[in-house]
Specification:
Structural class: mainly alpha
Strand content: 5-15%
Shape: elongated
Number of helices: 4
Radius of gyration: 22 Å
Number of strands: 3
Helix content: 55-70%
Strand order of the largest sheet: 1-2-3
């Protein structure tokens, strides 16, 4: 018995253009805000913006939300490997849902921006502090939003598959007179 051919979902030029545009926008937004914080606030200086929201200049030698502090080499290698894996996965299935270029663009842009800071400076600049939550930056936000959009896209793809009509069994009814 031959296996049924799988539908092709490889990313086309439009999906790649979308991913690259979103990734570049994410890197630029993250780098501009970090440089602005570094130039306008001294390290550990804080400004209360709204109740529960403070802009605080801190340095993070770990990954998102301060996890794995001081593990720069391991974090950098894992981040680079994750970016490569995401791009390979996108190349193979980027056209499965319209959200995938945006989701992966945010994930790649956020990851690359923080990775560039770690390699260049040995840390990332975090500055958004919400009460009872570790201080983070725009790149961290882009990564979280990208994961949420990717999950939403995957749920919608699976839901669409489950709603597809089932092919009737061509052999059904052959034994009937």
């Amino acid at each position: 018995m031959e296996a049924e051919p799988q539908p092709v979902h490889r990313a086309g030029s439009l999906q790649w253009a979308g991913l690259v545009a979103v990734a570049i926008a994410a890197v630029v937004a993250d780098q501009v805000t970090k440089r602005a914080i570094e130039h306008r606030l001294a390290l550990d200086e804080a400004h209360h913006v709204l109740p529960g929201l403070t802009i605080t200049h801190v340095r993070n030698s770990g990954i998102a939300f301060g996890i794995f502090p001081g593990k720069l080499a391991i974090v950098s290698v894992l981040t680079a490997a994750a970016v490569v894996w995401m791009l390979v996965h996108f190349a193979r299935s980027g056209s499965r849902h319209v959200l995938f270029p945006v989701a992966l663009g945010l994930l790649v842009g956020g990851s690359v921006s923080n990775l560039a800071d770690r390699v260049r400076e040995g840390h990332v600049t975090d500055f958004i502090h919400i009460t009872h939550w570790p201080t983070f930056n725009l790149a961290d936000s882009f990564i979280v939003i990208g994961v949420a959009l990717l999950a939403l896209g995957l749920i919608r793809v699976e839901h669409k598959k489950s709603q597809a009509p089932v092919d009737p069994d061509p052999s059904a009814g052959l034994d009937r007179p």
